[in-house]
Amino acid sequence: MRESVSKENVRRELLAAFKVVLGSFIYAVGFQFFMYPNDIVTGGLTGIAMIINYLTRLPVGVLTIIMNIPLFLYSWKRFGLRFIAYSLASMLLCSAFVDLLAQVPVEMTKEPLLGAIYGGVIHGLGMGIVFQTGATTGGLDIVAKLLRKRYQHINIGTIIMGLDLFVIALFAVIFRLYDRAMYALICMFCTTKVVDVVLYGAINSKVCYIITDEHERVKDAITRELDRGVTFLHGEGAWSRKEKDIILCVIKQRQIVELKTLVRAIDESAFMIVSDSREVFGKGFSSYNSD
Question: Do 143 and 230 belong together in one domain?
C-alpha cells in the first residue's frame, strides 16, 4: 500500500515538474516572440525588468532573477519548500528561455494588436500551466498568491491584473508610449482570462432552480433522463402563501436544452432560473484540489 502511494506521489511530482518546464517555455514564447518586439510591456517584475532594459539594455532575464531574490526569501516560510523549489525553477527557466529565445532570429508579427492578443493568450497559457502545480512564475505572481491566500473569493487572474495595471501605467508615463500601454491592457485582459480558464475551467456547468407544481414528475425526469441529482428547497409564495418545493440541480451546459424540453413537456407554466457556475465540486463534476 505504501509503495503504491509512493509511486503515485512520484508520478504526481514528475508531472508537476514537466508542467513547470512546459509552462515556463510557453510563457517565454509569448513574451519574446509577440510582446517584446511590439513594445507591449508585460506586468509584474518582468515588466519592470523590461522598463529597465529599455533604459540600460541589461538582459531582461538577468534583471528578473535579481529582483526575485527578496520575494523568494520572504515567501520561504509562508508557502514551504515545495512552493519555493517549483517557483524558483519556473522563474529561472522563464528567465533563461527569454534570453535564449532572444537569440532566435524569428519575427512572428510587427502588428501590435496581433502581438497583444496572441502574446496575451500564449503568455496566460504558460502562467496557468505553472499555477496548476501550486507554484508561480515568480515576481508579483508571488504577491498575487499571498493576496489570494487572504482574499480567496477573488480569482488569481483578477489579482494579477490589478498588480499589472501599475506596471503598465509606469511604462506609459516613463516612455510616453500611451498607445503601447493600451495594447498592453488588451494583452493583460487576454492573459488573465486564459489564466482563469486554465485554473478554474471554462463555464461549463449551470445551476438551475425550477418552481413547479409538478415537482415530483420533474424530479423523476431529471434523474432518469439526465442522470443528475436534485435537491428540494422548501419555499412559499409571497402572494399566494402557498408552500411548494423548489428543485435545485446542477447540470452540464450541453444538457440545458434537454432540461428545458423536459420541464416544458411536464409543466409549461413552470418558472425556471438558470445561472452560470464557475466551479462545481463533487460526484460527476470536478474533484476537490487543495492547491
Answer: no
